[in-house]
């Protein structure tokens, strides 16, 4: 007879926890989309306009949000569902030499704003992702983007914070649980990818 794994949850307890976590996810999604579909539509329109004009989508964030930035940039550069030409998108989280030189020579709060200053052009779209809405380097990146004439988009969660004041379009997931916020962020990101594909490359 096998011994139970130390710290393991019994089958019934595990199933209940799984259902509870799924319910939390579904509730967070429902709470956002109750009034948030309009902002997603406006962001999709901003992406479409920028990409049609040959501009670039710049994504950035920290930790899990950095992973989301890279994930979404990859969906645009390569493909989402349909085969189509690559779209101009860049994650400002991937060049370790740039990130570490800025962090070392200046300040970690400047790791995104310095890149926006170097790479951003009027008409590009800057997408700053911060589950708290208060990450200093994300805020600085969006401020630099606004100063240079980029369209600014914020992805956040929790309570209202400073992100809203510097964004043309703000996604705010009404949850204080980081995991739930990140899950809804990537759901919204995938919706945006699909809306862009449908608008720019309609299937006959």
Query: What's the Cα radius of gyration?
Result: 19 Å
Report the mean per-residue pLDDT as an integer: 94
SSE string? HEHEHHEHEEH
Number-wise, the strands total 5
- The level of helicity is 40-55%
The helix-and-strand class reads: alpha/beta
Describe the protein's architecture and organization:
The N and C termini lie far apart (60 Å). The protein is globular and about 55 Å long. Helix 1 (11-52) crosses helix 6 (178-200) and helix 4 (113-119) runs parallel beside helix 5. Helix content is 53%, strand content 12%. It has a five-stranded parallel beta sheet, with helices on both faces. The chain is built from six helices and five strands.
Give the arrangement of secondary structure elements.
Blueprint: H1 11-52, E1 57-61, H2 64-77, E2 89-91, H3 96-105, H4 113-119, E3 125-129, H5 136-147, E4 151-157, E5 169-173, H6 178-200
Parallel strand pairs: 1-2, 1-3, 3-4, 4-5
Helix pairs in contact: 1-6, 2-6, 4-5
Question: What descriptors fit this protein?
Answer:
single chain; 204 residues; alpha/beta; five-stranded parallel beta sheet; 53% helix; globular
In short:
With 204 residues, the protein is α/β, with parallel strands linked by helices.
């Amino acid at each position: 007879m096998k011994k139970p794994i130390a710290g393991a949850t019994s089958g019934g307890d595990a199933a209940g926890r799984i259902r509870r976590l799924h319910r939390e996810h579904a509730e967070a999604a429902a709470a956002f989309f109750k009034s948030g579909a309009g902002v997603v539509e406006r962001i999709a329109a901003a992406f479409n306009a920028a990409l049609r004009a040959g501009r670039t989508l710049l994504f950035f964030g920290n930790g899990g949000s950095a992973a989301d930035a890279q994930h979404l940039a990859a969906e645009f550069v390569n493909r989402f569902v349909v085969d189509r030409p690559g779209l101009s998108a860049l994650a400002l989280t991937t060049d370790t030499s740039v990130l570490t030189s800025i962090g070392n020579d200046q300040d970690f709060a400047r790791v995104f704003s310095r890149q926006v200053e170097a790479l951003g052009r009027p008409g590009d779209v800057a997408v700053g992702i911060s589950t708290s809405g208060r990450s200093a380097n994300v805020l600085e990146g969006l401020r630099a983007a606004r100063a240079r004439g980029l369209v600014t988009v914020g992805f956040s969660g929790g309570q209202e914070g400073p992100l809203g004041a510097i964004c043309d379009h703000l996604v705010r997931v009404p949850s204080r649980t980081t995991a739930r916020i990140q899950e809804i962020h990537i759901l919204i990101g995938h919706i945006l990818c699909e809306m862009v594909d449908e608008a720019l490359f309609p299937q006959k």
